[in-house]
Amino acid sequence: MPDRPVLDAAEWRARAAAHAERANALTAGHRARRSRRETHPVEDFLFTYYSYRPSQLRRWHPGAGVTLADAPERRGWRWYSAGAAPDSAVVDARAFDVDKPELARLVERMLRRTAARPGQFGCFGLHEWAMVYRTPEHRHSVPLRLGQAATDAVVEAHELRCTHFDAFRFFTPDAVPRNRTALRRESQPSLEQPGCLHAGMDVYKWAMKLGPLVPGELLLDAFELAADIRRLDMSAAPYDLSAWGVVPVPIETPEGKAEYVRQQRGFAERANTLRARILNAWRGFAADAQPTGSHDRHGAHAGAAAPI
Question: How many domains does one find in the chain?
């Protein structure tokens, strides 16, 4: 890993304050709704599905190997250690590897392999349609935009090409055999690809799991990407979300498909850029580079116990 900087107290405390202010702005709507015991089917997803609290987003970290001057309080924080100078603290990537070896291998493998694969852009967001296919019980308590029969017809008129297990596992029983591939948890590192919207949202999850090894600014960039992707995900879904101001991307039409793919390609590029930035901040190499010591040789372990 290349030499990492030492941040003086004024600099890192200013960055931490700016980070908290940005995080507060990003989570303001969710926090206000929570205080009123209200929910939003689109915007609250990142806090319910991933279960990370706004307070976790507000906490700034400098990234792996970065030393904070005049930070004695952080020496006791998880995955920090004492720096060379008195009262300094450094984010210790080795401590993370020792404490969470399987997670470290999994995250590295998911980030590198997903970025290295070509994106697939023919799914058209039909995973959400497959979750309501031929069933009166729906995950979201909102009406279907086209009604049940027409929604089912859209599914039947297309080949389901979902590559993301955490979407596939919510398919209805009738939708499961319609998917091109029978997905399994253990095969996720071998199938994830950058065109998938949910793989793009998961960049935020991987960044959060790495904790202080990821610079706070990068974590919030990943959160913003996940929020933007979620909006397209629900705009292309079969639900009528007009009450929440969601304008549909009608993927049952040629125009809707074209718009979906246009945005999907942009999100794939953004997600791969973030994957490379995370790997560089953490390991000191780009997403398409082979790490020193080749963590990927542990692939049998990396795919075994995915802490999703």
Answer: 1
Instruction: For residue 62, tell me if it sits in a domain.
Output: yes
Q: What is the DSSP string of 78-120?
A: TTEEE-SSTT-EEE-HHHHHHH-HHHHHHHHHHHHHHHHSPP-
Residue 174 lies in a domain: no
Task: Check residue 37 and give left, alpha or beta (phi > 0: left; psi -120 to 50: alpha).
Answer: left
Distances, alpha carbon 301 to alpha carbons 113, 193, 304, 305, in Å: 15, 20, 5, 8
Sheet holding 67-68, edge to edge: 6-7, 67-68, 89-91, 80-82
User: Hey, what amino acid is at 92?
Assistant: D
User: What pLDDT sits at residue 136?
Assistant: 85
Range of the domain at 64: 6-123+184-302
Residue 162 lies in a domain: no
pLDDT in tens, 246-288: 999 999 999 999 999 999 999 999 999 999 999 999 998 544 4
Q: What's the pLDDT at 168?
A: 97
| Residues 99 and 93: beta-carbon distance below 8 Å | no
Q: For residue range 178-211, what is the model confidence (pLDDT) as tens digits?
A: 999 999 999 999 999 999 999 999 999 999 999 9
- Please report the sign of the dihedral spanned by the C-alpha atoms of residue 19, residue 25, residue 29, residue 33: positive
pTM here is 0.90
